[in-house]
Amino acid sequence: MPDRPAGPNPEHDAELGATLLAQARAAIATRLGLQAPDVPDHPALHAPGASFVTLTRHGQLRGCIGHLEPVQALGPDVRENALAAAFRDPRFAPLSTAEWPGIAVEVSVLGPATFTHCPTEEDCLRQVVPFEDGVILTSGSCCATFLPQVWEQLPEPQEFIAHLLQKAGLPVALWPSDMQLGRYRVKKFKEA
Fold first, then answer.
1. Which of 57, 108, 113, 172 is deepest in the core (most CB within 10 A)?
2. 20, 74, 98 from 79: Cα distances, Å
3. pTM, full prediction
4. Adjacent-strand bridge partners of 136
5. What domains are there in the chain, each with its CATH number?
6. CA-to-CA distance for 71 and 49, rounded, in angstroms?
């Protein structure tokens, strides 16, 4: 019997994506008291995993919450983050039943982050790979991240980093000397 070729398995990814999207949608629908879709099982749901769940309505952000590192199995992580994105994102009022039919769900499964010290903005810009890297900036107690999808709205690296500094509550004009740069990749699954 020949060995299977190494590398990603698109069929496995499609099954995982459908399962994760169903997990997120079912958690929110149940909380709203609505009919929830059936959720198939998948082995990846039981392994540790970090996820972000993003909700959009008419193409506009409606909630986004997640974890940067695995804190539990992937299935519970997606359910927890779906509920948080729908009902506890401080930027938005809790999701209403009336809004639910227009909501699109996206689940991002995060790979491990690698961190380096970046004493200057130029160091940071040299290391970041636009449209591929999710980025974490941390200095002292300040920390913020942008998923790789944010590159679509902020395609210029300097603008991307400036917005991320603002999100973290850090000064844009004065680069902190203790800055840590984290970079990670995601597998993104989005409803059609």
1. 108
2. 9, 9, 21
3. 0.89
4. 145, 182
5. 10-110 (3.30.700.20), 114-185 (3.30.1490.150)
6. 7
